[in-house]
Amino acid sequence: MNAEANPRLALRPMLPDEGPLLAEIFRASVLELTGDDYTEQQQNAWAAVANDEAAFAERLAGEVTIVATMGGSPVGFASLEADDKIGFFYVHPAAVERGAGTMLADALEKLATGRGAEALNVDASDTAYDFFGKRGYAAQQRNSIRRGDEWLANTTMKKALAGKETMQ
Fold it and tell me: Which InterPro entries does the protein's record reference (predicted)?
């Protein structure tokens, strides 16, 4: 038996057939982690974004999407929808506080810097607000987003990125 007490985290690009699995991570993250900040109706409307798994996968494929794995299994994913804007950022509840979110955020910031972005923006849910705040993102504005029959609040946050590092 080869079980690891602390399975290794790694990152890789999204694979073409992973849409359904990433949709499940998305739904689990929304439904299990956001209850302190959003009503059950808001959570259900938000999670329903992934009900059409083919459309969800197509949207992820149209962005720069990276997947965090733990012991080889996907536990989270994040995307750049533009060089300076985070699209998706979700970690499965079982992997929260294990470093996957930090690894994803570090990678997105490096990708954005490599693509010439001077700052990175994210529309952070109330649940993710503190995570991004601790990483140096500053609130810019509050937003109301309609999902189905529900309105969800989030905050546009921005972080200035370091200049491109010189090769040594």
Answer: Acyl_CoA_acyltransferase, GNAT_dom, N-acetyltrans/Recomb-assoc
Instruction: Look at the block and give the residue holding tokens 């997947």.
Output: 67
Main-chain dihedrals φ then ψ at residue 149, nearest 5 degrees: -95, 5
Task: Output 87 or 163, whichever has higher pLDDT.
Answer: 87
CATH code: domain of residue 50: 3.40.630.30
Q: Check pLDDT > 50 for residue 22.
A: yes
Q: What sign does the dihedral 120-113-46-148 (CA atoms) show?
A: positive
User: What order of strands is seen across the sheet that includes strand 9-13?
Assistant: 9-13, 64-70, 73-82, 85-91, 119-125, 150-160, 138-147
Query: Structural domain of residue 17, as residue ranges?
Result: 9-117
pLDDT-derived band at 165, boundaries 50, 70, 90: very low
H or E element at residue 75:
strand 73-82
Query: Which DSSP string corresponds to 113-164?
Result: HHTT-SEEEEEEETTTHHHHHHTT-EEEEEEEEEETTEEEEEEEEEEEPPPP
Q: What is the model's pLDDT at position 162?
A: 82
CB 130, CB 115: distance < 8 Å: no
Phi, psi of 153 (to 5 degrees): -90, 145
> Global pTM?
0.91
Q: Does residue 2 carry a pLDDT above 80?
A: no
